[in-house]
Amino acid sequence: MKSPRSLLLNLLLLALLPVAGLRAQALKPKLRQVVSPPARKEKFQLYLLIGQSNMAGRGLVEAQDTVPNRHVLRLNPAGQWEVAKDPIHFDKPIAGIGPGLTFGRNMAAQDTSLTIGLIPCAVGGSGIDAWTPGAYFADTKTHPYDDALARAKTAQLTGTLAGIVWHQGETDSSPEKSAGYQEKLMALIARLRADLQAPALPFVAGQLPAFQINRPGSDGQPHVNAAAIRINEAVAGLQKQVPHYAFITAEGTADVGDHTHFNAVSARLLGRRYATAMQQLQRHYRPKK
After folding, report:
1. Containing H/E element for 234?
2. Does residue 87 register a pLDDT over 60?
3. Which of 130, 142, 191, 225 is deepest in the core (most CB within 10 A)?
4. Quick one: which of 250, 240, 243, 47 has its CA closest to 168?
5. Which domain CATH number covers 226?
6. Would you say residue 25 lies in a domain?
7. Distances in Å between the alpha carbon of 108 and those of 36, 62, 114, 192, 256?
């Protein structure tokens, strides 16, 4: 039997949980500022953010994530440009901190004469098969590939597409799905480049973290997910097969407590890594104007 002191502590924790949740929700921006994009398309660099929930973000929104930066915009669900604040994705109501905003801020810091336009299109829970033309994803009642392509083309009316960032693989971390992952990702990259008429468009992919590879089983002990390792090997292996491609590791990251989603600190870390990798690729890339 628990002591009265232990019971009291548990009651206090339960009472504080709703307050903490409300506080977190209160940090999410209630108002979004719609703005006009730069007049010159070459000064407005666009980045397509695609994948599943860890690209969309599930980290807790903090004050620093809602500070506006006039050099970083996002394409909202209505196809308008607005000052970017987290959460930038809108796939599900639980969208939070992902790597996108930090990526945009770091890209903007490289050249303050440019404005960065983020095109959030990630869909939580979507497997790589959902990222094919015509594929319907019932969980969100969307067509991930078709929707992303349409939004990218809308963004290109006012800016210049400069790269794609991809974080996905959790849904495909099973023996039967992971076996063909590398070929499917290679096909996705080629298809996006063809459909966007940018054959050398830089593409950066992210690896799965250790907390998804070593997950606790029903016995409470960590069990190695060999399929997740295969996904990471596929992502890394494409660097030798696909031009203008790079990947980042998820080393040193932590989850929110569910062994699935990056916490806010880790999401920002990934954003910085994505920016560094993208900047390295762009040294040899000239976007189509």
Report:
1. helix 226-237
2. yes
3. 130
4. 250
5. 3.40.50.1110
6. no
7. 17, 21, 7, 24, 28
Has residue 239 been placed in a domain?
yes
Contact 271/106 with Cβ under 8 angstroms? Answer: yes
Q: What is the enclosing helix (H) or strand (E) of 193?
A: helix 181-195
The two three-digit tokens of residue 26, written as one number: 């209160």
pTM beyond 0.85? yes
Residue 3 belongs to a domain: no
Written in H, E and C, the secondary structure of 152-189 is: HHHHCCCCEEEEEEEECCCCCCCHHHHCCHHHHHHHHH
The Cα 261–Cα 135 span in angstroms is: 25
89 contacts 98 by C-beta, under 8 angstroms = yes
> Does 135 score more than 90 pLDDT?
yes
Q: For residue 179, which of 244, 110, 112, 233 has the smallest C-alpha distance?
A: 233
With 90 as the cut, is the pLDDT of residue 284 above it? no
CB 234 within 8 A of CB 194: no
In the chain the beta strands, taken as DSSP E runs, fall at 44-51, 72-75, 81-83, 115-120, 160-167, 203-206, 214-216, 222-224, 245-248
Tokens read off for 263? 């916490």
Please state whether 277 falls in left (phi above 0), alpha (psi between -120 and 50) or beta.
Answer: alpha
Domain that holds residue 50: 35-282
